[in-house]
Amino acid sequence: MNSQTNANAPEVIQHYKEPFNFRRFIRANSAQLGILGVLIVLWIIFIISAPRTFLAPDIYSAFMATIPFFAIMAIPLTIIVIAAEMDLSFPSIMVMGMVAFSWVYNVTAFLHNATIQVFLAIVAALITGTIIGWLNGFIIVKFGIPSLVVTIGTQFLWRGADLVLTQGANFSLEYVKPTFFYPLFVGTIDKYFPMQFLWFIVIAILGWVVLNRHRFGAHIYLIGDNINSAELMGVDTGRTRIQAFMLVGLVSAFAGILASFYVTYFWPSMGDGYLLQTLASVFLGGTSVFGGVGTILGTFIGALIIGAIEAATVAAGLTGFWTQFIYGLIIVLSVIMHTYLRKRGE
Amino acid sequence: MEYRLELKNVSKSFGEVQALENINFQLGRNEIVGLLGDNGAGKSTLIKIITGYYQPTSGEIYFNGKKVDHLSVPKARELGVETVYQERALAELQTLWRNIFLGRELCNSLGFLDIQRMRDETHRLMTQSMGFTSSAISPDSHVGQYSGGEKQGVAIVRALFFDADIIVLDEPTMGLSLKETAILVNFVNSIKKAGKSAIFIDHNILHVYNVADRVVVIDRGKVAGEFLTKNIGLNELMDKMVHVAESGKLE
Fold this sequence. Notes:
The complex is a heterodimer of chains A (about 350) and B (about 250). With about 350 residues, chain A is mainly α. Chain A contains 16 helices and four strands. In chain A, the strands form two sheets. Chain A has a two-stranded antiparallel ribbon. In chain A, strands 2-3 form a two-stranded antiparallel sheet. In chain A, β2 and β3 form a beta hairpin. The longest helix of chain A is centred in the middle third of the chain and has 30 residues, at about 115-145. The radius of gyration of chain A is 22 Å and the shape is globular. Chain B folds into two domains: about 1-80 and about 170-250, P-loop containing nucleotide triphosphate hydrolases (Rossmann fold); about 90-165, no CATH class. The two termini of chain B are about 30 Å apart. The radius of gyration of chain B is 19 Å and the shape is globular. Chains A and B meet through α11 and α12 of A and α2, α4 and α6 of B.
Protein backbone atom coordinates (compact mmCIF):
# COMPACT_ATOMS: atom_id res chain seq x y z
CA MET A 1 0.00 0.00 0.00
CA ASN A 2 3.00 2.32 0.23
CA SER A 3 4.15 1.34 -3.21
CA GLN A 4 5.57 4.79 -4.00
CA THR A 5 8.68 4.07 -1.98
CA ASN A 6 9.60 1.19 -4.24
CA ALA A 7 8.15 2.47 -7.50
CA ASN A 8 11.57 3.03 -9.06
CA ALA A 9 13.16 -0.12 -7.74
CA PRO A 10 14.45 -2.27 -10.58
CA GLU A 11 12.68 -5.59 -11.18
CA VAL A 12 15.22 -7.80 -9.53
CA ILE A 13 14.14 -11.11 -8.08
CA GLN A 14 15.65 -11.15 -4.65
CA HIS A 15 15.96 -14.50 -3.05
CA TYR A 16 14.63 -14.34 0.41
CA LYS A 17 16.71 -16.26 2.86
CA GLU A 18 15.91 -16.29 6.50
CA PRO A 19 19.03 -15.54 8.54
CA PHE A 20 19.80 -18.61 10.60
CA ASN A 21 18.75 -18.14 14.15
CA PHE A 22 19.39 -20.92 16.63
CA ARG A 23 16.52 -20.05 18.93
CA ARG A 24 14.09 -19.80 16.06
CA PHE A 25 15.26 -23.17 14.76
CA ILE A 26 14.62 -24.74 18.16
CA ARG A 27 11.23 -23.12 18.38
CA ALA A 28 10.16 -24.11 14.86
CA ASN A 29 11.18 -27.74 15.41
CA SER A 30 10.38 -28.05 19.10
CA ALA A 31 8.02 -31.03 18.68
CA GLN A 32 10.53 -33.12 16.75
CA LEU A 33 13.42 -32.15 19.01
CA GLY A 34 11.28 -32.87 22.06
CA ILE A 35 10.38 -36.40 21.02
CA LEU A 36 13.95 -37.03 19.86
CA GLY A 37 15.03 -36.03 23.36
CA VAL A 38 12.56 -38.53 24.84
CA LEU A 39 13.97 -41.27 22.58
CA ILE A 40 17.55 -40.51 23.60
CA VAL A 41 16.73 -40.36 27.31
CA LEU A 42 14.86 -43.68 27.11
CA TRP A 43 17.72 -45.22 25.20
CA ILE A 44 20.22 -44.16 27.84
CA ILE A 45 17.93 -45.62 30.53
CA PHE A 46 17.73 -48.88 28.54
CA ILE A 47 21.51 -49.06 28.20
CA ILE A 48 22.08 -48.41 31.89
CA SER A 49 19.49 -50.93 33.02
CA ALA A 50 20.39 -53.69 30.53
CA PRO A 51 23.83 -52.94 29.09
CA ARG A 52 24.45 -56.43 27.76
CA THR A 53 21.28 -56.32 25.66
CA PHE A 54 21.41 -52.75 24.47
CA LEU A 55 25.11 -52.56 23.63
CA ALA A 56 24.85 -55.62 21.38
CA PRO A 57 23.57 -55.34 17.78
CA ASP A 58 21.02 -58.18 17.90
CA ILE A 59 18.31 -56.28 19.76
CA TYR A 60 18.32 -53.55 17.09
CA SER A 61 17.87 -56.08 14.33
CA ALA A 62 14.90 -57.48 16.24
CA PHE A 63 13.40 -54.01 16.67
CA MET A 64 13.79 -53.22 13.01
CA ALA A 65 12.10 -56.51 12.11
CA THR A 66 8.95 -55.96 14.17
CA ILE A 67 8.39 -52.19 14.30
CA PRO A 68 7.51 -51.64 10.61
CA PHE A 69 4.32 -53.74 10.64
CA PHE A 70 2.43 -51.09 12.59
CA ALA A 71 4.76 -48.12 12.04
CA ILE A 72 4.25 -48.06 8.27
CA MET A 73 0.57 -47.31 8.80
CA ALA A 74 1.40 -44.49 11.19
CA ILE A 75 2.77 -42.50 8.22
CA PRO A 76 -0.50 -42.04 6.26
CA LEU A 77 -2.36 -41.88 9.57
CA THR A 78 -0.26 -38.82 10.44
CA ILE A 79 -1.54 -37.19 7.24
CA ILE A 80 -5.13 -38.05 8.24
CA VAL A 81 -4.72 -36.60 11.73
CA ILE A 82 -3.10 -33.42 10.37
CA ALA A 83 -6.23 -33.01 8.23
CA ALA A 84 -8.21 -33.17 11.52
CA GLU A 85 -9.69 -36.53 10.56
CA MET A 86 -9.35 -39.98 12.13
CA ASP A 87 -9.21 -43.52 10.81
CA LEU A 88 -9.74 -46.53 13.09
CA SER A 89 -10.40 -49.01 10.30
CA PHE A 90 -6.81 -49.61 9.14
CA PRO A 91 -6.30 -52.88 11.08
CA SER A 92 -9.32 -54.32 9.27
CA ILE A 93 -8.03 -52.99 5.93
CA MET A 94 -4.76 -54.86 6.59
CA VAL A 95 -6.60 -58.15 6.81
CA MET A 96 -9.04 -57.46 3.96
CA GLY A 97 -6.06 -56.84 1.67
CA MET A 98 -4.81 -60.32 2.55
CA VAL A 99 -8.26 -61.84 1.98
CA ALA A 100 -8.15 -60.41 -1.55
CA PHE A 101 -4.55 -61.60 -1.84
CA SER A 102 -5.29 -65.25 -1.09
CA TRP A 103 -8.48 -65.22 -3.18
CA VAL A 104 -6.61 -63.96 -6.26
CA TYR A 105 -3.77 -66.43 -5.65
CA ASN A 106 -6.26 -69.30 -5.57
CA VAL A 107 -8.32 -68.30 -8.61
CA THR A 108 -5.20 -67.79 -10.72
CA ALA A 109 -3.96 -71.32 -9.97
CA PHE A 110 -4.39 -72.19 -13.67
CA LEU A 111 -1.35 -70.00 -14.43
CA HIS A 112 0.92 -72.53 -12.70
CA ASN A 113 3.46 -69.81 -11.98
CA ALA A 114 3.78 -68.81 -8.33
CA THR A 115 5.62 -65.56 -9.07
CA ILE A 116 2.98 -64.23 -11.44
CA GLN A 117 0.20 -65.40 -9.11
CA VAL A 118 1.78 -63.69 -6.11
CA PHE A 119 2.35 -60.54 -8.16
CA LEU A 120 -1.33 -60.42 -9.16
CA ALA A 121 -2.31 -61.16 -5.58
CA ILE A 122 -0.19 -58.24 -4.31
CA VAL A 123 -1.80 -55.91 -6.84
CA ALA A 124 -5.23 -57.15 -5.76
CA ALA A 125 -4.44 -56.54 -2.08
CA LEU A 126 -3.23 -53.00 -2.74
CA ILE A 127 -6.26 -52.19 -4.91
CA THR A 128 -8.62 -53.61 -2.28
CA GLY A 129 -7.03 -51.48 0.43
CA THR A 130 -7.27 -48.37 -1.75
CA ILE A 131 -10.93 -49.01 -2.57
CA ILE A 132 -11.82 -49.50 1.10
CA GLY A 133 -9.99 -46.27 1.90
CA TRP A 134 -11.91 -44.52 -0.86
CA LEU A 135 -15.18 -45.83 0.54
CA ASN A 136 -14.29 -44.49 4.01
CA GLY A 137 -13.50 -41.09 2.52
CA PHE A 138 -16.57 -41.09 0.32
CA ILE A 139 -18.95 -41.78 3.22
CA ILE A 140 -17.23 -39.18 5.40
CA VAL A 141 -17.23 -36.44 2.76
CA LYS A 142 -20.53 -37.06 0.95
CA PHE A 143 -22.66 -37.66 4.03
CA GLY A 144 -20.72 -35.30 6.26
CA ILE A 145 -20.36 -37.83 9.08
CA PRO A 146 -17.36 -37.46 11.44
CA SER A 147 -14.58 -39.81 10.36
CA LEU A 148 -14.21 -41.22 13.89
CA VAL A 149 -17.79 -42.48 13.76
CA VAL A 150 -17.63 -43.79 10.20
CA THR A 151 -14.38 -45.71 10.72
CA ILE A 152 -15.60 -47.27 13.96
CA GLY A 153 -18.35 -48.69 11.78
CA THR A 154 -16.19 -49.73 8.83
CA GLN A 155 -13.64 -51.22 11.20
CA PHE A 156 -16.30 -53.72 12.37
CA LEU A 157 -17.70 -54.08 8.87
CA TRP A 158 -14.44 -55.18 7.22
CA ARG A 159 -13.33 -57.32 10.14
CA GLY A 160 -16.73 -59.00 9.90
CA ALA A 161 -16.43 -59.41 6.14
CA ASP A 162 -13.00 -60.97 6.69
CA LEU A 163 -14.43 -63.48 9.20
CA VAL A 164 -17.40 -64.35 6.98
CA LEU A 165 -15.26 -64.81 3.88
CA THR A 166 -12.57 -66.91 5.56
CA GLN A 167 -14.94 -68.62 8.01
CA GLY A 168 -12.31 -67.75 10.60
CA ALA A 169 -9.75 -70.03 9.00
CA ASN A 170 -5.97 -69.71 9.32
CA PHE A 171 -3.81 -70.92 6.49
CA SER A 172 -0.22 -71.09 5.41
CA LEU A 173 1.32 -68.77 2.82
CA GLU A 174 4.33 -71.05 2.34
CA TYR A 175 3.95 -70.54 -1.45
CA VAL A 176 5.32 -66.99 -1.31
CA LYS A 177 8.72 -68.16 -0.05
CA PRO A 178 10.22 -69.25 -3.38
CA THR A 179 9.09 -66.07 -5.16
CA PHE A 180 11.31 -63.07 -5.42
CA PHE A 181 8.79 -60.95 -3.45
CA TYR A 182 9.61 -62.76 -0.22
CA PRO A 183 13.21 -61.52 0.07
CA LEU A 184 12.16 -58.15 -1.43
CA PHE A 185 9.60 -57.51 1.30
CA VAL A 186 10.78 -59.35 4.40
CA GLY A 187 14.31 -60.60 3.64
CA THR A 188 17.40 -59.26 5.32
CA ILE A 189 20.46 -57.41 4.10
CA ASP A 190 23.66 -59.03 5.40
CA LYS A 191 21.51 -61.21 7.66
CA TYR A 192 21.11 -58.17 9.86
CA PHE A 193 19.07 -55.36 8.33
CA PRO A 194 15.42 -56.37 7.71
CA MET A 195 13.94 -55.32 4.37
CA GLN A 196 10.65 -54.31 5.99
CA PHE A 197 12.51 -51.60 7.88
CA LEU A 198 13.87 -50.31 4.59
CA TRP A 199 10.26 -50.18 3.32
CA PHE A 200 9.30 -48.25 6.44
CA ILE A 201 12.05 -45.71 5.71
CA VAL A 202 11.02 -45.46 2.05
CA ILE A 203 7.35 -44.92 2.93
CA ALA A 204 8.29 -42.35 5.59
CA ILE A 205 10.38 -40.42 3.04
CA LEU A 206 7.59 -40.59 0.46
CA GLY A 207 5.14 -39.44 3.13
CA TRP A 208 7.40 -36.52 4.00
CA VAL A 209 7.73 -35.47 0.35
CA VAL A 210 3.98 -35.67 -0.24
CA LEU A 211 3.21 -33.73 2.93
CA ASN A 212 5.86 -31.03 2.68
CA ARG A 213 6.72 -30.64 -0.97
CA HIS A 214 3.47 -31.33 -2.76
CA ARG A 215 0.25 -29.40 -3.20
CA PHE A 216 -1.65 -32.33 -1.69
CA GLY A 217 0.24 -31.96 1.59
CA ALA A 218 -0.16 -28.18 1.58
CA HIS A 219 -3.91 -28.67 1.28
CA ILE A 220 -3.89 -31.28 4.06
CA TYR A 221 -2.36 -28.75 6.49
CA LEU A 222 -4.84 -26.05 5.41
CA ILE A 223 -7.85 -28.35 5.77
CA GLY A 224 -6.77 -29.43 9.24
CA ASP A 225 -6.08 -25.86 10.27
CA ASN A 226 -9.30 -24.24 9.02
CA ILE A 227 -11.45 -26.18 6.59
CA ASN A 228 -13.72 -23.19 6.07
CA SER A 229 -10.85 -20.96 4.92
CA ALA A 230 -9.56 -23.71 2.67
CA GLU A 231 -12.96 -24.04 1.03
CA LEU A 232 -13.43 -20.29 0.60
CA MET A 233 -10.06 -20.09 -1.12
CA GLY A 234 -10.93 -22.85 -3.54
CA VAL A 235 -9.24 -25.91 -2.04
CA ASP A 236 -11.15 -29.07 -3.00
CA THR A 237 -11.45 -30.26 0.58
CA GLY A 238 -13.59 -33.28 -0.26
CA ARG A 239 -11.29 -34.73 -2.89
CA THR A 240 -8.18 -34.10 -0.81
CA ARG A 241 -9.64 -35.86 2.23
CA ILE A 242 -10.82 -38.83 0.16
CA GLN A 243 -7.31 -39.13 -1.27
CA ALA A 244 -5.86 -39.14 2.24
CA PHE A 245 -8.15 -42.02 3.25
CA MET A 246 -7.14 -43.87 0.08
CA LEU A 247 -3.51 -43.52 1.12
CA VAL A 248 -4.28 -45.10 4.49
CA GLY A 249 -6.02 -47.97 2.70
CA LEU A 250 -3.17 -48.52 0.26
CA VAL A 251 -0.46 -48.47 2.92
CA SER A 252 -2.46 -50.63 5.36
CA ALA A 253 -2.90 -53.31 2.70
CA PHE A 254 0.86 -53.15 2.12
CA ALA A 255 1.51 -53.49 5.87
CA GLY A 256 -0.77 -56.53 5.85
CA ILE A 257 1.32 -58.07 3.08
CA LEU A 258 4.53 -57.46 5.03
CA ALA A 259 3.13 -58.81 8.31
CA SER A 260 1.76 -62.01 6.79
CA PHE A 261 4.78 -62.62 4.53
CA TYR A 262 7.02 -62.34 7.57
CA VAL A 263 5.38 -65.34 9.20
CA THR A 264 4.17 -66.84 5.85
CA TYR A 265 0.83 -67.27 7.46
CA PHE A 266 -2.64 -65.79 7.22
CA TRP A 267 -4.67 -65.36 10.37
CA PRO A 268 -8.05 -63.60 10.36
CA SER A 269 -7.43 -61.47 13.45
CA MET A 270 -4.30 -59.91 11.98
CA GLY A 271 -3.89 -56.24 12.86
CA ASP A 272 -6.01 -56.43 15.98
CA GLY A 273 -3.24 -55.35 18.31
CA TYR A 274 -1.95 -52.58 16.05
CA LEU A 275 -4.72 -50.02 16.44
CA LEU A 276 -3.54 -48.29 19.60
CA GLN A 277 0.19 -48.73 18.96
CA THR A 278 -0.16 -46.98 15.60
CA LEU A 279 -2.28 -44.16 16.96
CA ALA A 280 0.07 -43.74 19.92
CA SER A 281 3.02 -43.36 17.51
CA VAL A 282 1.24 -40.50 15.74
CA PHE A 283 0.37 -38.62 18.93
CA LEU A 284 3.73 -39.34 20.56
CA GLY A 285 5.28 -37.71 17.50
CA GLY A 286 3.58 -34.41 18.27
CA THR A 287 0.75 -34.43 15.75
CA SER A 288 -2.17 -32.44 17.12
CA VAL A 289 -5.55 -34.12 17.35
CA PHE A 290 -7.06 -30.73 16.44
CA GLY A 291 -5.34 -30.82 13.05
CA GLY A 292 -3.06 -28.46 11.15
CA VAL A 293 0.08 -29.47 13.05
CA GLY A 294 2.26 -32.57 12.79
CA THR A 295 5.37 -34.05 11.21
CA ILE A 296 6.40 -37.34 9.66
CA LEU A 297 9.74 -37.31 11.49
CA GLY A 298 7.92 -37.01 14.81
CA THR A 299 5.77 -40.03 13.97
CA PHE A 300 8.85 -41.98 12.85
CA ILE A 301 10.54 -41.41 16.20
CA GLY A 302 7.28 -42.05 18.04
CA ALA A 303 6.98 -45.45 16.37
CA LEU A 304 10.55 -46.35 17.34
CA ILE A 305 9.76 -45.55 20.98
CA ILE A 306 6.48 -47.52 20.98
CA GLY A 307 8.19 -50.46 19.31
CA ALA A 308 11.11 -50.53 21.71
CA ILE A 309 9.29 -50.25 25.01
CA GLU A 310 8.01 -53.81 25.21
CA ALA A 311 11.32 -55.54 24.56
CA ALA A 312 13.17 -53.01 26.68
CA THR A 313 10.94 -53.54 29.69
CA VAL A 314 11.61 -57.24 29.68
CA ALA A 315 15.33 -56.83 28.96
CA ALA A 316 15.60 -54.40 31.86
CA GLY A 317 14.49 -57.19 34.19
CA LEU A 318 10.90 -56.11 34.74
CA THR A 319 8.13 -58.58 34.06
CA GLY A 320 5.95 -58.23 30.97
CA PHE A 321 3.19 -56.95 33.25
CA TRP A 322 4.99 -53.64 33.41
CA THR A 323 4.85 -52.97 29.68
CA GLN A 324 1.45 -51.34 29.49
CA PHE A 325 2.11 -49.24 32.55
CA ILE A 326 5.30 -47.88 31.01
CA TYR A 327 3.57 -47.34 27.65
CA GLY A 328 0.97 -45.29 29.41
CA LEU A 329 3.48 -43.29 31.40
CA ILE A 330 5.55 -42.37 28.35
CA ILE A 331 2.55 -41.50 26.21
CA VAL A 332 0.94 -39.29 28.84
CA LEU A 333 4.19 -37.48 29.67
CA SER A 334 5.04 -36.95 25.99
CA VAL A 335 1.63 -35.58 25.14
CA ILE A 336 1.90 -33.14 28.05
CA MET A 337 5.34 -32.13 26.76
CA HIS A 338 3.98 -31.50 23.26
CA THR A 339 1.11 -29.38 24.52
CA TYR A 340 3.53 -27.33 26.61
CA LEU A 341 5.93 -26.86 23.68
CA ARG A 342 3.08 -25.87 21.35
CA LYS A 343 1.80 -23.25 23.79
CA ARG A 344 5.27 -21.80 24.16
CA GLY A 345 5.75 -21.73 20.42
CA GLU A 346 2.70 -19.52 19.92
CA MET B 1 -21.56 -1.58 -22.93
CA GLU B 2 -20.29 -4.90 -21.77
CA TYR B 3 -20.17 -5.36 -18.03
CA ARG B 4 -17.31 -7.03 -16.27
CA LEU B 5 -19.81 -8.94 -14.23
CA GLU B 6 -23.55 -9.23 -14.53
CA LEU B 7 -26.10 -11.25 -12.54
CA LYS B 8 -29.51 -11.79 -14.10
CA ASN B 9 -32.49 -12.84 -11.98
CA VAL B 10 -30.30 -14.66 -9.48
CA SER B 11 -32.12 -16.36 -6.61
CA LYS B 12 -30.77 -18.45 -3.80
CA SER B 13 -32.66 -20.38 -1.20
CA PHE B 14 -31.43 -22.52 1.65
CA GLY B 15 -34.21 -25.01 2.19
CA GLU B 16 -37.25 -22.93 3.07
CA VAL B 17 -35.34 -19.71 3.50
CA GLN B 18 -35.23 -17.44 0.47
CA ALA B 19 -31.91 -15.60 0.90
CA LEU B 20 -31.89 -13.84 -2.47
CA GLU B 21 -34.76 -13.19 -4.85
CA ASN B 22 -34.36 -12.18 -8.51
CA ILE B 23 -31.25 -10.13 -8.05
CA ASN B 24 -30.07 -8.11 -11.04
CA PHE B 25 -26.63 -6.72 -10.51
CA GLN B 26 -24.02 -5.19 -12.77
CA LEU B 27 -20.40 -4.28 -12.23
CA GLY B 28 -18.84 -2.10 -14.90
CA ARG B 29 -15.23 -1.81 -15.93
CA ASN B 30 -13.24 0.43 -13.67
CA GLU B 31 -16.15 0.83 -11.31
CA ILE B 32 -16.44 0.48 -7.56
CA VAL B 33 -19.83 -0.61 -6.34
CA GLY B 34 -20.77 -0.39 -2.70
CA LEU B 35 -23.23 -2.91 -1.32
CA LEU B 36 -25.31 -1.68 1.57
CA GLY B 37 -27.90 -3.46 3.63
CA ASP B 38 -28.79 -4.52 7.10
CA ASN B 39 -27.56 -7.68 8.78
CA GLY B 40 -29.08 -10.69 7.07
CA ALA B 41 -30.13 -8.69 4.01
CA GLY B 42 -28.26 -11.13 1.79
CA LYS B 43 -25.02 -9.24 1.09
CA SER B 44 -22.72 -12.10 2.07
CA THR B 45 -24.82 -14.64 0.17
CA LEU B 46 -24.59 -12.49 -2.94
CA ILE B 47 -20.83 -12.22 -2.52
CA LYS B 48 -20.46 -15.95 -2.10
CA ILE B 49 -22.39 -16.54 -5.32
CA ILE B 50 -20.05 -14.18 -7.17
CA THR B 51 -17.00 -15.94 -5.73
CA GLY B 52 -18.37 -19.37 -6.66
CA TYR B 53 -18.74 -20.61 -3.09
CA TYR B 54 -22.53 -20.96 -3.42
CA GLN B 55 -24.33 -21.96 -6.59
CA PRO B 56 -27.47 -19.92 -7.28
CA THR B 57 -30.79 -21.79 -7.15
CA SER B 58 -31.78 -20.04 -10.37
CA GLY B 59 -30.56 -17.18 -12.57
CA GLU B 60 -27.57 -16.49 -14.77
CA ILE B 61 -24.06 -15.15 -14.25
CA TYR B 62 -22.10 -13.37 -16.98
CA PHE B 63 -18.41 -12.50 -16.95
CA ASN B 64 -17.37 -10.01 -19.65
CA GLY B 65 -20.60 -10.74 -21.48
CA LYS B 66 -20.12 -14.51 -21.48
CA LYS B 67 -22.45 -16.75 -19.57
CA VAL B 68 -20.72 -18.94 -16.98
CA ASP B 69 -22.37 -22.13 -15.78
CA HIS B 70 -21.44 -23.99 -12.60
CA LEU B 71 -19.23 -21.28 -11.20
CA SER B 72 -16.85 -22.67 -8.56
CA VAL B 73 -14.25 -20.96 -6.39
CA PRO B 74 -11.29 -22.03 -8.58
CA LYS B 75 -13.24 -21.03 -11.72
CA ALA B 76 -14.09 -17.62 -10.31
CA ARG B 77 -10.45 -17.04 -9.39
CA GLU B 78 -9.47 -18.01 -12.92
CA LEU B 79 -11.94 -15.41 -14.21
CA GLY B 80 -10.16 -12.79 -12.09
CA VAL B 81 -12.28 -12.60 -8.95
CA GLU B 82 -10.32 -12.20 -5.74
CA THR B 83 -12.00 -11.84 -2.38
CA VAL B 84 -11.21 -10.45 1.01
CA TYR B 85 -13.68 -12.31 3.16
CA GLN B 86 -15.27 -11.00 6.29
CA GLU B 87 -13.93 -14.05 8.12
CA ARG B 88 -10.53 -13.39 6.46
CA ALA B 89 -10.13 -17.01 5.35
CA LEU B 90 -6.70 -17.52 6.88
CA ALA B 91 -5.10 -20.66 8.25
CA GLU B 92 -3.67 -19.35 11.49
CA LEU B 93 -1.39 -22.24 12.44
CA GLN B 94 0.39 -22.03 9.08
CA THR B 95 3.17 -19.77 7.89
CA LEU B 96 2.65 -16.49 6.06
CA TRP B 97 3.78 -17.83 2.68
CA ARG B 98 1.32 -20.72 2.89
CA ASN B 99 -1.47 -18.25 3.58
CA ILE B 100 -0.54 -15.91 0.75
CA PHE B 101 -0.68 -18.81 -1.68
CA LEU B 102 -3.63 -20.57 -0.02
CA GLY B 103 -5.46 -22.62 -2.62
CA ARG B 104 -3.15 -21.36 -5.37
CA GLU B 105 0.19 -22.82 -4.53
CA LEU B 106 2.91 -22.27 -7.09
CA CYS B 107 3.88 -25.71 -8.30
CA ASN B 108 5.16 -27.56 -11.31
CA SER B 109 3.07 -29.75 -13.57
CA LEU B 110 3.39 -32.70 -11.20
CA GLY B 111 2.10 -30.67 -8.28
CA PHE B 112 5.42 -30.26 -6.47
CA LEU B 113 5.66 -26.94 -4.66
CA ASP B 114 8.07 -24.17 -5.61
CA ILE B 115 8.65 -23.14 -2.02
CA GLN B 116 11.60 -20.83 -2.68
CA ARG B 117 9.60 -18.76 -5.15
CA MET B 118 6.62 -18.54 -2.80
CA ARG B 119 8.92 -17.36 0.00
CA ASP B 120 10.58 -14.79 -2.28
CA GLU B 121 7.26 -13.41 -3.49
CA THR B 122 5.90 -13.29 0.05
CA HIS B 123 8.97 -11.39 1.21
CA ARG B 124 8.60 -8.93 -1.65
CA LEU B 125 4.89 -8.39 -0.96
CA MET B 126 5.54 -8.00 2.75
CA THR B 127 8.10 -5.27 2.39
CA GLN B 128 6.72 -3.50 -0.69
CA SER B 129 2.95 -3.82 -0.53
CA MET B 130 2.01 -4.61 3.02
CA GLY B 131 4.48 -2.21 4.55
CA PHE B 132 5.20 -4.69 7.32
CA THR B 133 8.33 -3.67 9.09
CA SER B 134 7.99 -5.61 12.32
CA SER B 135 10.76 -8.16 12.61
CA ALA B 136 8.25 -10.68 13.96
CA ILE B 137 6.71 -10.94 10.51
CA SER B 138 8.66 -13.04 8.05
CA PRO B 139 7.49 -15.44 5.33
CA ASP B 140 8.02 -18.27 7.82
CA SER B 141 6.20 -16.69 10.76
CA HIS B 142 2.80 -18.00 11.76
CA VAL B 143 -0.22 -15.87 10.91
CA GLY B 144 -1.92 -16.65 14.23
CA GLN B 145 0.56 -14.37 16.00
CA TYR B 146 -0.40 -11.29 13.99
CA SER B 147 -2.60 -8.39 15.09
CA GLY B 148 -6.07 -7.95 13.58
CA GLY B 149 -4.85 -5.30 11.15
CA GLU B 150 -1.90 -7.39 10.06
CA LYS B 151 -4.16 -10.36 9.40
CA GLN B 152 -6.44 -8.19 7.32
CA GLY B 153 -3.37 -6.91 5.47
CA VAL B 154 -2.48 -10.49 4.58
CA ALA B 155 -5.99 -11.14 3.26
CA ILE B 156 -5.91 -7.97 1.17
CA VAL B 157 -2.42 -8.40 -0.25
CA ARG B 158 -3.33 -11.96 -1.16
CA ALA B 159 -6.25 -10.66 -3.23
CA LEU B 160 -3.96 -8.18 -4.96
CA PHE B 161 -1.08 -10.46 -5.78
CA PHE B 162 -3.02 -12.57 -8.22
CA ASP B 163 -3.70 -9.91 -10.82
CA ALA B 164 -7.43 -9.73 -10.16
CA ASP B 165 -9.94 -7.88 -12.36
CA ILE B 166 -12.66 -7.88 -9.75
CA ILE B 167 -11.80 -7.45 -6.10
CA VAL B 168 -14.51 -8.23 -3.59
CA LEU B 169 -14.12 -6.74 -0.12
CA ASP B 170 -16.54 -8.10 2.45
CA GLU B 171 -16.48 -5.94 5.59
CA PRO B 172 -12.77 -5.22 5.20
CA THR B 173 -12.62 -2.53 7.87
CA MET B 174 -13.89 -4.77 10.64
CA GLY B 175 -11.42 -4.81 13.53
CA LEU B 176 -9.09 -2.28 11.94
CA SER B 177 -7.61 0.75 13.67
CA LEU B 178 -8.24 4.23 12.25
CA LYS B 179 -4.86 4.31 10.58
CA GLU B 180 -5.31 0.87 9.09
CA THR B 181 -8.75 1.89 7.81
CA ALA B 182 -7.27 4.93 6.09
CA ILE B 183 -4.70 2.71 4.39
CA LEU B 184 -7.48 0.41 3.26
CA VAL B 185 -9.59 3.21 1.79
CA ASN B 186 -6.49 4.39 -0.04
CA PHE B 187 -6.02 0.93 -1.37
CA VAL B 188 -9.59 0.71 -2.68
CA ASN B 189 -9.05 4.00 -4.48
CA SER B 190 -5.91 2.56 -6.04
CA ILE B 191 -7.94 -0.35 -7.44
CA LYS B 192 -9.87 2.15 -9.50
CA LYS B 193 -6.75 3.92 -10.64
CA ALA B 194 -5.35 0.59 -11.80
CA GLY B 195 -8.40 0.18 -14.03
CA LYS B 196 -9.93 -2.66 -12.06
CA SER B 197 -13.34 -3.12 -10.52
CA ALA B 198 -14.36 -3.72 -6.94
CA ILE B 199 -17.37 -4.61 -4.86
CA PHE B 200 -17.16 -3.06 -1.44
CA ILE B 201 -19.33 -4.11 1.49
CA ASP B 202 -19.20 -2.30 4.78
CA HIS B 203 -21.40 -1.49 7.73
CA ASN B 204 -20.00 2.00 7.75
CA ILE B 205 -21.92 3.99 5.14
CA LEU B 206 -19.29 6.73 5.26
CA HIS B 207 -16.56 4.37 4.07
CA VAL B 208 -18.73 3.08 1.27
CA TYR B 209 -19.87 6.53 0.24
CA ASN B 210 -16.31 7.83 0.04
CA VAL B 211 -14.96 5.13 -2.26
CA ALA B 212 -17.90 3.84 -4.28
CA ASP B 213 -19.07 5.16 -7.66
CA ARG B 214 -22.42 3.54 -7.21
CA VAL B 215 -24.28 2.20 -4.20
CA VAL B 216 -26.64 -0.76 -4.35
CA VAL B 217 -29.01 -1.18 -1.43
CA ILE B 218 -30.11 -4.69 -0.61
CA ASP B 219 -32.98 -5.47 1.69
CA ARG B 220 -34.56 -8.82 2.55
CA GLY B 221 -32.90 -10.56 -0.38
CA LYS B 222 -33.91 -8.01 -3.01
CA VAL B 223 -32.32 -4.98 -4.60
CA ALA B 224 -34.17 -2.10 -2.98
CA GLY B 225 -32.51 0.57 -5.09
CA GLU B 226 -29.29 2.03 -6.42
CA PHE B 227 -27.72 5.46 -6.59
CA LEU B 228 -24.71 7.06 -8.16
CA THR B 229 -22.82 8.59 -5.29
CA LYS B 230 -22.26 11.81 -7.23
CA ASN B 231 -26.05 12.29 -7.41
CA ILE B 232 -26.86 11.82 -3.75
CA GLY B 233 -25.65 13.42 -0.57
CA LEU B 234 -24.43 11.39 2.38
CA ASN B 235 -27.24 12.54 4.67
CA GLU B 236 -29.87 11.76 2.09
CA LEU B 237 -28.39 8.26 1.63
CA MET B 238 -28.41 7.65 5.37
CA ASP B 239 -32.04 8.73 5.66
CA LYS B 240 -32.97 6.39 2.86
CA MET B 241 -31.12 3.50 4.51
CA VAL B 242 -33.00 4.00 7.74
CA HIS B 243 -36.26 4.22 5.84
CA VAL B 244 -35.50 0.99 3.95
CA ALA B 245 -34.61 -0.83 7.12
CA GLU B 246 -37.91 0.15 8.69
CA SER B 247 -40.31 -0.24 5.79
CA GLY B 248 -38.50 -2.43 3.27
CA LYS B 249 -39.15 0.23 0.63
CA LEU B 250 -37.09 3.13 -0.61
CA GLU B 251 -39.89 5.63 -1.09
